[in-house]
Amino acid sequence: MGGTNEDNQRIEEPGELDVLCGRGGMSNHHPGNEWYRRLIKSNRPLYRACPKHTKLLVSKAIVQAVEQQGGRFLEKNRGNGTWYQVTYKRAVDKTSQGLRERDRDDGDGAAVSADSKPIITAPPALRG
What b/e readout covers 92-123, taking b as 16+ CB neighbours within 10 angstroms? Predict the structure, then answer.
C-alpha cells in the first residue's frame, strides 16, 4: 500500500472528522467524507480559476483544513481490517483529483470567476 504511512499506529475505528479513502458506501456516507466533499465542491471554482502553478496550494489548504479540524485521511488495510493514515502526498493527490472532477449536478464543470469565495466551514461535529 504505497499511499499509506506504515509507521503510523493502526486505527481500529475512524472518527467522525476523518476522511476515508476508497470507494463504496462506507466512505460515501461517513460524516467526515460528506463534509470533505462539500469543502471540495465549494473550492472547485477557485481551483479552476487558478493558474496551473497555484492549483496545488488550493489542494494543500484543503488537506490542512481537514487536519486543523482534527481529521485524518485514512485507508483500510484489507488484510487485517484496520485503518492507517495515508501520507500527506496521498491526501493532497486525493484532494487534487476531487477538485478536478466535474460536479455531478451541473454536468459541465464550467469554471466560475476568480471572485467566487470558497466556503470553508467547520464540520457538523464541531458546530456549536
Answer: bebbbebbeeeeeeeeeeeeeeeeeebeeeeb
pTM of the model: 0.76
Q: Nearest to residue 63, comparing CAs of 42, 100, 38, 94? A: 94
Nearest-CA neighbor of 118 among 21, 23, 49, 56?
A: 49
pLDDT digits (tens, 9 = 90+) for 63-101: 999 999 999 999 998 888 899 999 999 999 999 999 999
Phi-psi region of 22 (alpha: psi -120 to 50; beta: other; left: phi over 0): left
Residues forming a β-bridge with 76? 83
Q: Name the CA radius of gyration of the chain, rounded.
A: 15
pLDDT band at 105 (very low <50, low <70, confident <90, very high): low
Q: At what angle do helices 88-100 and 31-49 cross, to 10 degrees?
A: 70
Which strands make up the sheet holding 83-85, listed edge to edge? 19-21, 73-76, 83-85
